[in-house]
Structures are given as structure tokens and as C-alpha cells.
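Q: What structure does this chain adopt?
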Amino acid sequence: MSPKVALKAKSEPVEPERLARPLALLAWYDRHRRRLPWRAAPGETADPYRVWLSEIMLQQTTVKAVGPYFEKFVVRWPDVTALGRASLDDVLRMWAGLGYYSRARNLYACAVEVTREHGGVFPDTEDGLRALPGIGPYTAAAIAAIAFDRRTMPVDGNIERVVSRLFAVEEELPQAKPKIQQLAAMLLADSRAGDEKSRAGDSAQALMDLGASICTPKKPACSLCPFTDGCVARTQGTQDTFPRKAPKKSGTLRRGAAFVVRRGDELLVRTRPEKGLLGGMTEVPGSDWRAGQDDKLAKEQAPELKGLSRWQRRLGVVTHVFTHFPLELVVYTARVDARTRAPDGMRWVPVATLADEALPNVMRKVIAHALDG
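A:
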């Protein structure tokens, strides 16, 4: 047998391992499960609303960052019907600072649809959940497993890492996703006759916790892992090299200008179009964001206000990184007298109430840079 064939054979679990691993995983989870504000306590039934809300918030965001936002949302809107009867502006304001704002718009659209079309009750199948706004394959599987104990395995970044190491998956992500999905499903505990629950949700959450606390991206604590004896990557001493990933392509730098205008203790702002990047969010007026943007052309897009004769350029630039591109903004400031009217599509807001506006992080940076000193 060639070394390559032997390695492949080692990565495929034999029958005793296949049966033992899911049970070992659940036993570990019962002892070490994380206490999270959206997670049902042992013996409690999961609330589909809290599961859905947390899964949307956790997309591309850490547990630590999500915690305070989740708590604010459930206090303000304790169930999906309450959220579905809110306004999009209120939801965006509450979401401000969490980033990836299309999630907030999809969250609201989903709440409205569940309220109006489903009587405030979430569908309990993957297909039914996927038909809702903002719910893709992973989120549908996560809600189905955790909230409704459907026998399915959602695969997030933590689970990808655990599975790719456990079976030494050599293919690079994202091409390896189907194989990792198939292998992850093997870690679901078998249902037994007479059992009330398959514990599919616990299996999924156990793998998530394992990846978050033990099988971490750097320096995994392999000696504490329930799979320590059967992990192929650990046996090879290559666990730090998994999952294999294709080199990231960084987007082209875009540049632009932001214009911060004060009228006494007020600031000039506007609302971005509903569709597109940062849709529906509040911003100060600005130029287009373009690769190779010319400062002179960017400044020509400044708002026109009566009595404004000169823009003051602030030293330095504001930098921000979006998913697909980095951004640099030069910041111009100006003051106008107390009777100056806002241009069409813009409005004055008190600086003291900016925290109540749906300002994305990049605009918070711009305003802080403009008002500093």
C-alpha cells in the first residue's frame, strides 16, 4: 500500500471510531458547554427566535461582540412578532456598530415575513427556513438542528477547523466544503429507539464549542480534546496547518472624501440608499468611493450650502476595511451659521444624539476624526 493510500485509509474512520466519536463529543459537551445568552440550559427547549437572532448576528462576527447586541435586541423585542412590528430605522439604529448591515435588513425582512405569513412561528424544517429572507444553507441547518432537533449538521468556521484536522482534509477551502460537510455529518449521534431527542443540536453546538475553546486556530489544546487519540492531523503533528486555505485575494484600494459640516452643535447627515453597501444607514455627505480616486474630483462632490466659503482638510486619512476592499477617506470640515438650511435629502442632527443614529463604523471613524480637537 502506498503512503498516500495508507494516509487516506487512516483518515477514514473505522466502524468503532464512527460510533464512539459522536458519543465522546456529547459527553465532552455535557461537561464543558459554554453558557451563552441565546443558548438553552440543559433540559430546556431552545427558543427558535433566540436561536435565529443569534445565528444572524454571529455571521462573520465574534461571540464577544454579539453578546451585548443580542441582549439589547431581546429586551427591546422579546419575540419575532415584536421585531416584525418594529420599523427598519429602529432596527438599524439598534444594529449600528455591529457591521455587515445587510444582515440587519434581512433580519427585519425575515421577522416581518414570519409575523405576517407564519403567524409568528418559525418553520421547523430546513427547506421552510431557507425560504425566509436572509437564511442560507448554514443558518437554516443551524436553526433546524438547535431549535427543532432536526438531524442535520451545520458547518461554521469552528466546525470546519475541527473536522479538517480530525480527518486531515487536504483539499483547500472553499473547495473542501462539501467533503467537510459530509465528514461533519458523521459526528451526529445515532438516534435510538425510544429516545425523545436525537441531540442533533447539541452535537452541532458541541463542535462549535470545541473549535472555539480547544481546537483553536493557533496552539490548539489537543490534550484536552475528546478526539485526541483519533485525530489524524495530531498524529501527523500538522494540526496547525489545517484547514488548508487558498491564498486570499485582497480587493483594490478605494479612496474618497467625507464632508463634516457643523451648524452650532448640529451635524449634517443623510441616509444612504436602501439597496447596496451600508444600505439605509446614516452617513455624513461624501464623494464616490473609487479605485484611483482623484482628490480634486472627490472634493467637487462636496455638498453646497449657503454661506460656506471654505473647506478645511483634516490631516491624515480615515481607513476602513470592508469584506471586498479597503477604503481610505480624506476628511473635510466646515462650519455654517445657525440659519443655514440642509440641502435636499440631508438633515441636521444634534451631535449629542449621534449615538442614536444608525451610523456604520466607518462613519463613526470619520466623525471622530473630524471632531477630534
